[in-house]
């Protein structure tokens, strides 16, 4: 029985590698990390400074993107030593989350939910915290963000 439990734990931990969470290199500024996401599919409309997100203090930036299909997406970005605590506070403020929508590990985390009619996907890793929100196209945009940041890692 112990061996079965041990094998199950090892399998689950190895499966976590499938849940890749990508962030830019630490050398990047928050503004640069947002600007490099613009391409033919997603036009960067504006970048503004923010002091908080959902009543959680975080001095970062928000980028407004518009997709080719007209979807407006907000990408909040923060870099700091307390990125994990910011993510946990945002997760708590976001209300009910199902177990299926949360990935929480010691070195990274991600959750997704729907709040006020908007889809929200939030993640942290290392010193970075990001949140994408919008009415449509959020999951596709998050995949784009992970793809761009994944290329930077290589």
UniProtKB/TrEMBL annotation:
InterPro entries, alphabetized: DUF3242 (IPR021636), TM1622-like_sf (IPR035951)
Classification via Gene3D superfamilies: TM1622-like
Entry-linked Pfam families: DUF3242 (PF11586)
PROSITE patterns per UniProt: PROKAR_LIPOPROTEIN
Protein name: Lipoprotein
Lineage of the organism: Bacteria, Thermotogati, Thermotogota, Thermotogae, Thermotogales
């Amino acid at each position: 029985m112990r061996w079965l439990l041990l094998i199950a734990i090892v399998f689950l931990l190895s499966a976590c590698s499938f849940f890749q969470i990508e962030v830019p290199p630490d050398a990047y500024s928050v503004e640069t990390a947002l600007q490099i996401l613009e391409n033919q599919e997603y036009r960067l409309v504006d970048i503004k400074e923010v002091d908080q997100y959902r009543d959680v203090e975080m001095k970062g930036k928000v980028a407004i993107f518009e997709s080719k299909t007209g979807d407006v997406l907000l990408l909040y970005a923060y870099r700091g030593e307390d990125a994990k605590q910011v993510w946990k506070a945002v997760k708590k403020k976001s209300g009910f989350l199902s177990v299926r929508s949360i990935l929480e590990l010691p070195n990274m985390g991600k959750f997704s939910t729907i709040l006020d009619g908007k889809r929200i996907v939030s993640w942290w890793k290392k010193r970075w915290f990001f949140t994408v929100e919008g009415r449509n196209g959020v999951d596709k945009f998050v995949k784009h963000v992970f793809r761009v940041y994944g290329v930077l890692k290589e």
